[in-house]
Amino acid sequence: MPAPDFIAPTILTPPPPPAEAELVPSGRPARAAKPGQPRPTRPRHAGQGRGRSGRHADAAGLVDGGPSPAVPGPTGPPAGGPTSDQTPGQAAPGQTAGRKGRKTRQAKSASDKAADRAPSALRWRLQALTAPVRARWATLTKALAPVWAAIRPVLAIVRPAGWATLGLAVGTFVIGRRLGWQEFLVVALLAAALLLGAIGFVVGRSTYAVTLDLTRLRVRVGADAYGGLTVVNTSSRALLPSVFILPVGRATSAFHVPRLGGHETYEESFQLDTSKRAVVPLGPVRSARGDGLGLLRREAKWTDVEEVFIHPRTISLQGSSAGFLKDLEGRPTDTLSSSDIAFHALRDYVVGDDLRHVHWKSSARTGKLLVRQFEETRRSHLVLCLSMTPEDYGSEADFELAVAVAASLGEQAIRDEKDLTIQVPGRRLRVQTATRMLDDFSRLEFGGAVVPLETAALAAAQAAPDASVVMVLAGTPVTPARLHAVTARFGVDALTVVLRCETGAGLARSAIGPARVLTLGDLDDLPRAVRSLEV
Predict the structure, then answer these.
(1) What is the value of pTM for the model shown?
(2) Stretch 92-111: mean pLDDT
């Protein structure tokens, strides 16, 4: 069979690159035209877009609307195969830059996906490799948990000095055996003897019965508060001396209990510091036994934690309650109502009014129906808003004075069975009983909240929209503008009073808009300040 005839391709010299790369609408550089020829353009047939048909036309080599270069018939090379002037990896003349770019983007996206999958695949392989080890470790930990729980109290007996002595004994023994130095062996023997001697002080169980007696769990600032510690040996054998540790707040008190015989009792009394308002946790009481060198120490817990509340100092306002709202029926307001207790005036009858409210005598005298009109009455509701921001007070003593004033006002309101709301930044205090209220006052800490006074006032106004008397307590550094903004949070029907607390200042009275301002320098001035408020 004769070999097919091939048409020799024409080898063209590539034209020089253009000065500036021209871009086709797709954003890729356009192919440069031959010298002396116009730049080829893609055909635009009627009704043809940039879809698959357009791309196929580009691939077929339709340039300037003309046919593609002559291609051999069946005897020629394949249409997609390389020609004589092409390398196997080079694109055929019929391929366009669009297909090249599309293949490049596909290759890049595939490489990016492979790079993203690489860390997850590596992580998955590491997890698969370490899964058996982690499973065995979990099983071993679960199996050894009872053993660790049993030996942990024993290891807790050894103090740092004891561990150092044990390391010294082991180290000097190994060195002495290896090097044959008798001096190191003697040191190891002495260290071991110290440890064995210390064990004798902590071995055995303690049979104590410990009781913590407190005369009162709630005291006022400055009142006396005493407590007692009773230790009883409940066994018939003697117990070695021990030390009982009693945490009192942030401090710690130690009581040295001597050797106790069988069923012998030891008592110790102590006094609490009540000079400052606080909640003092007492306990738990622990006993400690150990050697004099501090190698071993064994502790045991005997009581739980008990809290002692040191309430703020308060003053009675029983004889000066005229400033408070003393009412049985309620306090009348400016809001008019058709049915209440406080009579306001008469008005003409309107269809729909209740005939029970018709004032018949006035109606007969005037010749027309007149009905009674009333003022709405509200039960007295006292709202106390206390600032706790340190910047609102000149000193901590001013803050303590404000707490004492608020506690005195709240205690009197609870005693008079009035509605009460006490708002501090972040929360409201319990007001069901005076004891609970004073307990919450004892927990307040100076500088414990940085919430602005305006935010606390807004919370108080939302919690008590029917407030009849509002008292805002702060220090003298609070500016009048801020006080005006605070008092504006409450309704116009409420009597608003600002109590500015400054230790040592004299009693003074002023006003900021409709609000009354009282300056207090001592808690004893509070009854006189309350009497000056006429409602």
Answers:
(1) 0.62
(2) 50
